[in-house]
Amino acid sequence: MTGTDVPHDQSARRPLVALLTGAGISTDSGIPDYRGPNGLWRRDPEAEKLVTYDAYMADPEVRRRSWLMRQKSPAFRAQPNAAHEAVAALERSGTPVRVITQNVDGLHQLAGVPARKVLELHGTVRAVTCTRCHARSSMREALDRVAAGEPDPACLVCGGILKSATVMFGERLDPQVLGTALGVAKAADVFLAVGTTLQVQPAASLAGVAAEHGARLIIVNADPTPYDALAAEVIREPIGSALPPLLARLGQPV
Q1: Mean pLDDT for each consecutive 10-residue tract of the chain (254 residues)?
Q2: Which long-range contacts (CB under 8 A, 24 or more apart) does 66-69 make?
Q3: What is residue 252's predicted lDDT score, i.e. its pLDDT?
Q4: Which residues does the record give as Zn(2+) binding sites (predicted)?
């Protein structure tokens, strides 16, 4: 997706709907969040080291444990839930839709949202990248190599260290992806923050940017967020039951 994909036709009958989605939209698919009361980082603080760039690059044992963790990741077995399906249905309805996601599970695309309309702020768990030559390949291929007996598979192109194509702790977000997300937030007529605490920057600031540029801000999250006061509507109901009727309403022509 590029900046040119953001619709600016003010005569369009349907508003541009942008969604910022966080871990909460995927919990119904069996993917636990990381920072909640039962989140992975609270249950196993050592697990955070496995996705910290400096530790990963410096220690082969950390990389070995990281590959074992990926083998067990629920993301590869997960299927889109009613919330993901509702977003895809909105896009199919003809409404201009852009998804900005903090998730790395790829479930928006699996549900049918075109990949060019999904901005993955934190990358994707479904691919790996070489830290030396930046060659990219599938996560499945890398995990098959681990299963075949390679505890720390190296890049097949240059022999460099492979890592998940996710943004690890200590890494910067892709500036192009972030810049496009900022453009989407500024252009949106309606901006929904779904299943995100809106506490992790710079992603959280997109909600404020959207509101400042005139978007109707709607927050769908179980707990209060720092941006609730800016929202035109705050919904505390479960995402899987609240989002489908909400998006169906937004998809009606005006």
Answers
A1: 47 80 94 61 69 95 94 90 97 96 96 98 96 97 97 97 96 95 98 95 95 97 95 96 95 67
A2: 66/164, 67/142, 67/143, 67/146, 67/151, 67/152, 67/153, 68/146
A3: 72
A4: 130, 133, 155, 158
Domains of the chain, each with CATH number or no CATH: 1-31+80-122+173-254 (3.40.50.1220), 35-77+126-166 (3.30.1600.10)
Q: Is 130 assigned to a binding site?
A: yes
Structure tokens at 170: 């200590």
232 is in an annotated binding site: no
pTM: 0.89
Q: Give phi and psi for 70, each to the nearest 5.
A: -65, -35
pLDDT of residue 12: 46
pLDDT on residue 5: 55
pLDDT at 75: 86
- Is 122 a residue of the active site? yes
Q: Which of 8, 84, 122, 134 is catalytic?
A: 122
